[in-house]
Structures are given as structure tokens and as C-alpha cells.
## 1
Amino acid sequence: MRLDLSNAIQFCKIESFENKKKLAVDCLNKLINGNGKGSDFLGWIDLPINITNSIITDIVETAKTFKNLDAVVIIGIGGSYLGAKAVHEALKPHFDKPKPEIIFAGHNLSGNYHSELLKYLNNKHYGIIVISKSGTTTEPAIAFRLLYRDLKQKFDKETIKKRIVAITDAKKGALRKLADKEGFKTFVIDDNVGGRFSVLSPVGLLPIAIAGYDIKSLLHGAANMRNICINKNPENPAIQYAALRNVLYDEGKKMELLVNYNFKLNYFSEWWKQLYGESEGKEGKGIFPVSVSFSTDLHSLGQYIQQGERHLFETNILVNDDSDSPIIPQDEEDLDQLNYIAGKKMEYVNRTAAQATIMAHVAGNVPNIIIEIDKINEYNLGSLIYFFEIACGISGYLLDVNPFDQPGVEDYKQNMFKLLGKK
Ligand code: PA5
């Protein structure tokens, strides 16, 4: 992973950036020493190196037991599904549906989504991974109740027991109680790992392993990035990214657009939005995280980005890989006037679009940070995940908020429970 700040740095004063980097090193120290805000929730820092071989083996072996099913439904919301979904979407083919098909549920309250899902699963052999740290979240709880009843109507108790795994707290919560009572296999979410920082725990690793991806390589990428990012050197990329985005924020750049040029990264952006939005958006502060996929969104949001209010900066994730790309054919008549790029790979045009867009947006006063990877694979995704997590912790401390709580999420829930008549 390479971080290039050269298209963003000109938008801030060098001394502001240097000062912020010094502050960012102090913030990293607080994270590592566990003496900053929310220090009860720092278990994620060492997840890639602390996860034991026996847990990894248990995850891999459990995943194998789901291999011959038609589908596996991953039930969870927020931090209990976005990490797994991000990695799955990044690695799966665009069109083929490898077996078992991975389906997500309980991440919304849409009646028709779950009704159509039940119909879709009707004649299928499927399993369920139900994930909830608190064990009481409404969306996954409803989805699990619906699907568990469906399985109970079709299969005997012993078969069902082999098809359900719960990932939840070691002791607390309704899901723990239910799993213990029904005898489901369980994995534990540690107390000191919050939902949006949990992808490198069984929360993300089990679904990713079931989908057939190499979790050891994912963890390896994360562990190597950890080595780089816990270095208390101002040139550490997490320090640089956290410091620069905060200097830009001080300069009035209130929104950060995570940009990709590859649909496979769309859910990585969703994961990133939750990570930064829920960690930083509090006490009337925080950069608003937005995501776009170019060139698609250049034809919808491009006008605003180029010429609208100047409160934006962009962080591009570029993938330097054209190994799987059609070559644009020569055409005798050239009615579509594309012969000037005949013989070039389509991905070359995509890459040129990225270069052109960054130039145009920088000229239009939109700072651009560039993160480049060579390939979308488990190792690089692990690296990116860890990089963004630790930069998020540093950045939250720079803002002087607790990056590890989410008190604002409770408000709608309290209203909803009141309206639904919950006792
Ligand atoms: O990051 C978070 O803490 C949240 O997004 C939670 O992951 C989300 O609300 C789901 O919570 P739970 O896992 O308790 O069902």
C-alpha cells in the first residue's frame, strides 16, 4: 500500500501539517498506552497478532462444515456485518455465484427483503451465522427469529444445530442466552472490541472463511500494517493520513469522499463510512464520510465535486492491476470513433480517467489523497483495514472525541421502542 499526499498537501500550511503530525504521534501513544478516551475498547489494536492458532483453526474447520450448503445467511448489522460484506464484495466475482452463496440479512428492517429471502431460501439447504455483540439489536434479532423458525419447520433439531453458529458476547445478551439454551456453536466477541473495529475477529473472519477466502493472509496483511502503523514516527502513513485529514478539516474541508474506480470496493467504502462516521461524528464535530465510485458517479456527482461548495476533499483507493481487462478492438468503420484507443486495455482507460479526474478536482480546489494497492486480495484488504482503523483511532483523538462509543445511535432506538410499545 502506498500513500501519496502530493495532491493534497498544497491545500494546507506546512507548519500546520507538521504540528498536527506531532499531535498525531501523541494520539498514537495514547492508543498504544491505553490512556486515552474509550480505552476499554482498544482490543482491536492487537487483534491481528493476538488471535490464537486454535481460534483460526476453529474458524477454518467450522467454515468447512458449511461448504456443501446452497447458501449461508450472515445475519448482523453495522459493525456486525459491514467488514465481512466489504471483504466478500471485494473478492467475489462480479457475476458468478460461487457455492455456498453468501447472503446478508438482518441489516435492514425491510419487510419485502426478508419476505423475498424466505421465498428464495424455500427449497435450499442453508445455514445461518448470526452475529450481534449486544445480542439484543432489533434488526438481526427479527431476521434470526424468522429464519430460525423456517429451519425448525423443515429440519430436525440435530441438523439445525449443525447449521447455526452464533457470534456474540461471552456471557451477556439475549443471543448468548438463546445460543446456550439451544446448543448452537458460538464464537465470542471480546468485550474490548467494538462492532466497527471487529472485522479481524470471528465477526468478520468466519463469514469470510465460509465464503472461501484466506483469512490467514488477511490477518497477515493486517499484522504487517500494524508493524508499520504503531511506529511513533511522523512519517508513519496512519499518522500522515490522520494528521492531513484533520488539517484539511480545520481549513473548512468538512466532507471526505472515499473514491474508488472499481465496484468491488463499494462495500469497503460502506465499511469505512461506518468506521469514520460513527467514531468521529459526535459533540458537534467530525468530517462527514461519503463514498463515490468513479467514473459512474462522475456522471451524477461530478458536477458538484468540480464546482459546488468547496468543503470537500477526496481519498482515492486506486488499484494498479490491469491483469483482467478486455482490450478495446479495432473497428474498420470506426463509427463510434474509438479507434484512437484501439489495442489499449479498458483498465488503461479507467486508470487514465482517474488521473484526469484527480487533476481536474485538484484544479477545482478539492484536495486529493491517493492510496494505491497492487491488487485486490486478502493481504492488501487486511492492510487497508488495519491502516484505516488505526488512523481512525488517531484521528478521533486529534478531534478530542471518544472514537469508540456511539451514544447518538441510541436516540432513534429509544423512540422506536416507545412507539412499538416495548416494555
Ligand atoms: O460499531 C458498532 O458498535 C455498531 O455498528 C454495532 O456493530 C451495531 O449496532 C450492531 O450491534 P450488535 O453487534 O450489538 O448487534
Note: The chain has two domains: 2-36+232-398, 43-213.
## 2
Amino acid sequence: MIFALIGNQNSGKTTLFNQLTGSNQRVGNFPGVTVERKEGIIKGHKEATVVDLPGIYSISPYSNEEIVTRDFLLKSRPDAIINIVDATNIERNLYLTLQLIELEIPMVLALNMMDEVRSNGNTIDIKGLQTELGIPVVPISAVKNEGITELVDKALLVIEKQRKPKILDFCTGAVHRTIHAVAHLIEDHAEKIGVPRRFAATKLVEGDDIMQEALKLSENEIDMIAHSVTEMETDLGIDREAALADMRYNFIEKLCQNNVVKTGKSKEHERSILIDKLLTHKYFAIPTFLLIMLTIFWLTFDVIGQRISDLLSLGIDNLTGLVDTMLANYGLNPVVHSLVIDGIFAGVGSVLSFIPIIVTLFFFLSILEDSGYMARIAFVMDKLLRKIGLSGRSVVPMLIGFGCSVPAIMSTRTLSSDRDRKMTILLTPFMSCSAKLPIYAV
Ligand code: GDP
Ligand code: MG
């Protein structure tokens, strides 16, 4: 039996995976791509293997992670899906759930981080969620090892009973009409390649070229779908992707209104929203960003880094002088003397004196990263960077590039598409790190 473990990033997938498998893990890569594939045997159930899939937010074909997950689900057809959902961010997490349900694979929802939900004073109606979603829901806390046994039992049960998700229809109005029309039209094609027709239809309405290719539709059918979609877009006044996103979020909103009780309004959350309003504001966002970066550069290159750097070179100079006189007194061969003093000390010394600046810059950048400001910058810069064909996330490697190109290029790992990664890798070395400035000057 194969279980696929799927969820958003930071929903606790790795934590749950470790709880489920203990130390029986194997790590490899998905064939052809550098996306990690981890699998392990569930403790106490030799017959059950669980595969940890990459953290994703949607099953579209945009990033390697999404393509890997989608291929795995459609081609290998796992026996069941364990969808892990961060209960403290339930609205956003359920967006993926709604798409997984359309795959018509037996599925259990693991509602993680329930310990936090409780300590915030909120409650979630598990039974209600279960009925409205049409799949079993198990509240768990992966870190506290609560509810894991029940989760495994429920997962084994859905396989045994071959219990597919009961409800598929999350759509209303124009979207509903379009999805169903397309679903009927492509029914035979979807069956032929073994893809659930509702899933295929939704993807076609979203404008998914890979799905269109795979289904081998005729010109005529492609035309008919395009007409239905255009009709829907004019009816709703928004484009196809937005229409489907709207449909899913409308459903989720209602679902949460009915089943999630948020009594504990946390002050931290309100404050965070207020700060975000300024940091991602239409006009203030970029000036704020520039101000923050200027401050960091000023602190790094002038106030802190440069001073430490000066102190360090002073130390190195003194040491060099000391060794110089020592060697001179010892009467060493002038060639060896020059090699040690002019070569090793001067050479290594001048490289060493850069280190304080780099360390200081990285210190500030890691504060930006851990405070979540980097994610806001990526969001703000997205529109601008798209104009040169990059995504907002490329900002992070580029900023790191001011410190040093090596870690900057390494950090492009986190970019989602191969193309973005390559573009960013090529552009990053043009960011001026402090070692490049003297070279420009010369
Ligand atoms: P992944 O990105 O989905 O693999 O998520 P991780 O397993 O790395 O977890 C992300 C963070 O959430 C980590 O800091 C975990 O310690 C934390 N976490 C995971 N499960 C729970 C939980 O049940 N309760 C709480 N409070 N934190 C959790
Ligand atoms: Mg993980």
C-alpha cells in the first residue's frame, strides 16, 4: 500500500513523516529532476509505505515540485492520499485540498497543529468539516504525537473500503456550467488516459496546456472548450484562473464560516496585519524597502563592518610587521622572506579583511529572512521583476549577491521554476559584492 503525504510548505509534513516512519526512511530524487523524494515504512504496518511529496500550494504545472506531485498522483496512483493541513492557516491550506479531492483517490485529511488552535482559544468542528468535504478528517498534532495512530487507522480504512471522496462539486454559477460542459465533452479522452474527468475538466478550464496535450483533443473540441471558457470569462468579468480561484475560495470561506470558531483574536495577528499594510503598500512599499536596504548597507559598510574590518587589518598589519622583523633577524633567504610576507601575509590578509563586512551583511539579511520581510519584498518586487522575466523571489539571491555570489547562487535552489533559477544564477554575479569594487576601480 502506498500513501502519498501532501500538503503546503510548513504544514508539518516532515514532522508527521518522521512520526509515521520513525527511522525507516529512504531519500532519493524523483527521476530527472532535483526534487527530493523521501519514502518510509509506517511504524507497525510493514505493508504500508508513505511517500513524502514536495510542499505545494496548488496542482498546476508551473514548478518542478508541482509537476512531480501531479505526475506521481496521476501516473503512480497511490492507494491513498494523506493531506496534511495546517489548522492555524486552514483557509489557505484547503485550497490544495479541494484540488486533491478531484483526483478521486481515497483520501484522509490530517488537521495538524491542533495544539496551537486550542491554545489560541479557537475551535474547529471536525464532524462538520468531514460532512461538507466528504472525506474523513483527523485532528492531530505532529510535534506532540497526538492523533497519529487514529490517522493511520483511518487511512488504512479508506483503502480497505475504497472510500473515495464523496463530494466533488465545489462550483456554482458560470464556473459550474463550464466545468460540467467541459467534463462531458472530454469524458472519453480522460478515461482513455486514466485521469479523473472532473480533474481534467477543471485543469482545462484553468488553461493547463500540459493537460490539453495529454488528453489528445481534436481541434474542434479545443475550440468548443475555448468558447465555453470565453463565455464564462465575460459572464464573470474575470479571467479563467481567477474564476476558479474565486470559486474555491468562496467554497472555503463558507466552509470555515460554518465550522471554524475564532474567538481568540490574537493581538499579534492584528499588529502583523497593520505592519504588512505599510510594508506592502502600493506607494510606500518600495521607498520603505530602499530605506531599509540603505540602512543595512550603511551599517554594514560604514558603521559596523568597516570598523571591524579596519581593526582586523590593523591586527594583520601588526602581525605582519612582527613576523617581518622576526624573519629578518633570523636571516632568512630574501626570496622565502618575500614569499611569506608579500605573498602569504599580504594576500591572505587582504582577503580576510573582507570577512567582517560579509558576515555583517549576512547577519542583517538573515534578520530580514527570519522576520518574514524577505517574503514581503518578493511579493512587492514581483511585478517589477516580471517585466524582465523573473519572479519576485529572485530578489533574495540578488540581495545576498551584495555579500557574496557563492551563497547567492546556492540560494537560487528555492526558486520554483528552472527558468527563473537559471536567469537568476546568470544575473547574480553582476551584483556588486565588496570584492568586486576594487576590481572595478582598477
Ligand atoms: P514541512 O515544511 O511541511 O515539512 O513542515 P515541518 O515538518 O518542517 O514543520 C514546520 C514547522 O511546524 C516546524 O517548526 C514544526 O516544528 C512545526 N510543527 C509541525 N507540526 C506541528 C504541530 O502539530 N504543532 C505545532 N505547534 N507545531 C508544529
Ligand atoms: Mg519538509
Note: The pocket of guanosine-5'-diphosphate (ligand 1) is lined by residues 7, 9-15, 55, 112-113, 115-116, 141-143 (CB under 6 Å).
## 3
Amino acid sequence: MRAVVLVGGEGTRLRPLTSTVPKPVVRLVDRPFLAYMLEWLARHGIEDVVLACGFLPTRLREALGDGHRHGVRLHYIVEPEPRGTGGAIRFADEALDGGLGERFLALNGDVLTDLDLRAQIDAHEAAGARATLGLVPVDDPTAYGLVRLAHGGAVRGFLEKPEPHEIDTNLISAGAYVLERDVLDLIAPGRGVSIEREVWPLLVGDGLHGVAHESAYWLDIGTPERYLRGSQDILAGAVRSAVRERLDSHGLAHGAGCSIEGRLRGPAVLGDGCHIAAGAVVGPGAVLGDRVVVEPGATIEQAVVLDGAHVGRGARVSGAIVAPGARVGPDCLVTGAAVVGPDATLGAGNVLDRGMRLFAGVELPDGAVAF
Ligand code: GDD
Ligand code: MG
């Protein structure tokens, strides 16, 4: 069975992490975000994966190549212009001359999950469904597609981005579908089509089913807060992934050529060529990319500091993100899901908090921001 993965969105809510690289290849712990999805598919025996791209996938190709490192064969399909979630699936099938086959998987490409695809495929088959949605419970369904399920698993209502007063269940669509080929006929050709708004409503009562994955891990990584949470959950092993297998008995893993004079506290993952000076503390819950420099007395905890970033003497990065090439000056505090953008520079003694996002290349003088 083939899978088509939708990776054409712009990822605007993750800016500035996505101002220089597209969301699917933003590094999550030690590999491109999409690698988790490819490895999850490979674990389910899905080896042919079609990436439906709304834009030129140059960076995607550079990061993922032919997919063999992650156990799959990748096919890249590029829409003439973004066709929407349904339009992208139809376009990919046409571009491959019907290559998605009689039954296939379609997946939103911005989700970190380990849900049991095999169970969903089996339920789809047992029900004789035309489309089967994977469902997960969430606290607040407003940002998702709400799914009302009848006994026996038929969907009796689908509401994309429901209003608060419409919410009568916590089950939402996880963005993982098993589809029969005839569903493609419900997608108008040659234009943008939202599968959530234009296709699911047509299938309610006519072959749309849902399977609740009550205990699976599932996270849409679309915001800095959720990107941080996903990083922590991978380190903690809350989601099944290959990263956890790399950690030693202290919960630590680091790449080649690191010089570590300060303290590492697990769980923590460091890339290649990092320098942790004496008196610095990295972890718990720290992710460092390649060539990160942490100066004496600095602390990094529950935080992500990406390739080539520099954290100055006595600075503290806690529950926040420092993008590639950024410099955090001495005695700064970066916390509260703040993001220091790529190649941005924070002068000494700044405080970034409450989700503040410093955009790419911005330079803040010493002591410019406080809370
Ligand atoms: N190729 C292509 N072309 N991909 C697209 C396009 C397009 O025009 N538009 C969106 N995508 C991709 C996005 O990159 C993302 O991976 C996926 O389709 C879903 O789009 P989002 O924009 O992230 O939608 P959402 O998160 O608001 O809602 C969707 O996901 C929820 C679960 O996270 C819906 O499917 C909801 O029903 C669902 O609950
Ligand atoms: Mg999304």
C-alpha cells in the first residue's frame, strides 16, 4: 500500500523557525521533522511514500533525498499551485498515472504520532468503508476537525474548526486516512479542494468511518509551544521513535567531536561538534543541534538550541527555542516559549518571555528588552 503525505502548507505559525526552512525539514531533536513520519510508516510496512508538495521541494529533497535513510522510497510531486488538502491528493494520483492504487493512505505531514495504522487499516477493511479517519482525543477541538461517531464506527458528523458551542465530543481527525480509490472521484479536478470541507461532508452516512486511537501519541507541531512539547516528548520516550534508542542509561546522546567541560543532565541530545564550557549546564530536556557553543555558567533546560547557535556566559535558555546561527548574549534569559530567530543576535542582559518571537537576522542591543 502507498501513502501520500501532504507537505504543501507554509508553516506560518511556526515562524521564524520556518522562515529559512520549510516545516517538514525543521530539525526536531536530531532529524528532520518529516523523518519521524517516514520511519513510522516504514514500521507499518509502508515503503512507497509520495510527498505532495505545494511548492518547489528543493530543501525537502536536500534533507530527505530518496528516503532510504528512513526506510522508504520517496516520490516527490509538485502542484502547479497549492491545490488544498483534497486537490493535492488527486493531483498526486494523476501525476503518477493512478499510482496511488485501489486503496491508499493519506496523511497530514505536520503531525508527530505513533498511532497504530495497522489497526486502522484492519477496521477500514472490516467495515467495508470508503474512507476511514484516524481519531484522537484532544482537550480543545477548535483548531481541528471534530468527528461525531456513531456506534459501530460510522461518522455521523464532521465539523472542520468547530465553534465552541458546537463541541460535543473530544475526538478529532488526526489527519491520517485510509481511502478507497473512488473517493478521488469526489474531488473536483484542476482546482483547490479542501478534503475536510468539501469531501468528508459528502461521505457522512455514505462510507465515512472513524477509528479512535485513544492511547496513541499525537501532536500537531504547528506552533513553537507544540514544537517544544514534541521535542520533550521524544526525549522522554512518550512517543515511539528511533531517537529514544540512541540515548544511553543517563538519557544522553551526542554526536561526533563534542567537547564537554560542563555538565550534561539527561535527557539531552547534542549534535556534532558542540562545545559546552566549564560551569555550563545542559539539560534536562535539552536539544542542541550541530556546532552549538555554550559559554561558562550558561544553562539550557527544557529547550532547543539549533545548529551553530551561541549561548553566552551566564545566559539561561529555559523552555524556549534558539534558531540556527542565533547568538544569545551574556546574562540573557530566554524563556516562556520565546523564539530567537535564525541568525538573530541578542545583546547582553535581554529577557525574552511570553512567546516573544525575534525574527531572522534581527539584532537587539544590550538590555533592550525586559519583562
Ligand atoms: N500539497 C499540499 N497542498 N499540502 C497542503 C496544502 C496544499 O495546498 N494545504 C495544506 N497542506 C498540508 C499541510 O502542509 C499539512 O501537512 C496538512 O496539509 C494539513 O493542513 P493544515 O493547514 O496544517 O491544516 P490544519 O492543521 O489546520 O487542519 C488539518 O489537520 C488537523 C489535524 O492536525 C485538518 O485535516 C483537520 O481536520 C485535522 O484535525
Ligand atoms: Mg496542521
Note: The pocket of magnesium ion (ligand 2) is lined by residues 108, 110, 220, 222 (CB under 6 Å).
## 4
Amino acid sequence: MKVACQIFRLLSRRNFSAGTKMAKSKFEYVREFESSDRCLPNTWMVVRLDGKGFHKFADKHNFEKPNDKNALSLMNEAAKSVMKEFKEITLAYGQSDEFSFLIRRDHDLYNRRSSKISTIICSLFTSAYVFHWDHCMVGKTLLYPPCFDGRVILYPDEKNVRDYFSWRQADCHINNLYNTTFWNLVLKGGITNQQAEERLCKTVSGDKNEILFSQFGINYNNEPEMFRKGTVVYRPKDRSKRSSNVNVEHIDIINDAFWLEHPHLLNKIRE
Ligand code: GTP
Ligand code: MG
């Protein structure tokens, strides 16, 4: 009897369920209100994160204008933390306050549940951003908690995936050329923000290159690659290194060369 009592106590403490139907509470029905957000199978999944109110966040933390090398490195560290945790991510691309993660099309991460995937990647990225702050932002105090939004976008084929990343890298180029010219006009040229805005409105990229060169002696092509191209984090081909190694480079992903050199990034594991 004593042994039977002990076994009963042990089992009831473990909330055992294997093969045993637990009695449901009368409140259980509320689960029926949850809707499935399972993503289409066999599609590429991109999770893009973007800093909330980073215009203000950058100001409050005295980020260098237009590019703060340490702040961008911090974003890259956070992205590496995410890639180390989720091996299904083959590649990530970041610029400014955003990062996009590519999850291979045949993955079964969290049963392909969209909100589960986006929220867990978003929260890991955010906590890693805070975790690595002191290391990257030497001598700067984090004044308030940063946050990022996240979304999932599905792409049916490789061309769409490549076009997506081309879109983000082209955006990086357009914004960075504008911002570099804008802040040189303001910080070195001594004109106001509004005057700089007026000067740049209706200019094409050639005009901005010309302003930088003739007025400030800057050849835009010599600006740091991290600023001009953003950051690409990807898994090397060697499978034995897949567990934790990632490469971090500031390279072109619009042209074919990168994808031809790393075909495994867009290939299926299982056929
Ligand atoms: P929401 O994303 O809509 O919440 O607005 P946001 O203020 O984050 O602006 P958005 O995402 O459109 O753009 C990112 C902003 O972050 C830029 O406009 C810059 O103001 C700021 N930012 C990002 N990286 C840097 C940097 O390296 N240096 C500086 N000074 N600012 C940066
Ligand atoms: Mg933002």
C-alpha cells in the first residue's frame, strides 16, 4: 500500500500524458480560437527584422552619421547568434537597422508556423543585440531597451529569393549614397539639413558622386564596403562546419558571381 501511494504521488507530480488522456478543464475550448499560420510547404522563407524607431535610437546613442561602424558590427553579431542557433538559415543580409534571414525551402522548423518562427528569431536577435552591446559599443551605455519588428515572406523560387536580396542590397546602395552625400554637405559643407535636402532633391547617383568628389575629395567607391554593400552572413559549404561556422562578408549579391560560387545556399538538402 505504501509503495502504491508513492507511485501514485510520483506520477501525479509528473503530469504524465503518454498514452493517458488528461481531463480537460472547462476552459480548454478557448484554444479553438487559435488559428493555424502554417506556411506553405516547399517555399523559401525570409524573415526580415527592422529596428523600431532607430532614427531616434541612433540619435540618443550618438551613432556616427551616416554610418556607425560599431553599431553595424553589433547588428552583425546579433545575426550571427541567430544563425548559430538555427541551422535551417543558410544566409542573412543586413544593412542599417534591418536584417533578413533566408530559411531553406525544405525546412520543418516549428512545423513551419509563421508567428512562432518570426517571433523567436526576432526575440533572439533582440536579446543578442543587447547581450553584445558592451562588447561592440565600447564606452557607450545602453539607455533604453531596443526592439525590432519581424515579418515572414514566402518565395516560391530561387529567382524571387535572389531578387529579394538584390532589392535589399540596391536599397542599401541608394540610401548610403544619399546619406553619405547629405551628411558631408551638412557636417563638412556647413549647410543646414533643409538646404542639403533641397540640394539633393532631383539629383541622380552620378550627381551625388560628383558632389562628393568635387566638393569633399571623396571617391564613393573607396568608402568602406560594409557601408556600401551591407553585410552578408552565410554558411560555408563544408558540411562538417555547418554546425556553427558562418562567413561574414561585405560583398555583392546582386550579380551572379556570389551565387555561382556558393550554389549550396539555394539548393535543397533532401530531394
Ligand atoms: P521604423 O522602422 O518605422 O520604426 O523607423 P526607423 O526610425 O527605425 O527608420 P527606418 O527603419 O526607416 O530607418 C533606419 C534609421 O536608423 C535610419 O534612417 C537612421 O536614422 C538610423 N540608423 C541606422 N543605422 C545608422 C547608423 O549607422 N548611423 C546613424 N547615425 N543612424 C543609423
Ligand atoms: Mg527601423
Note: The radius of gyration is 24 Å.
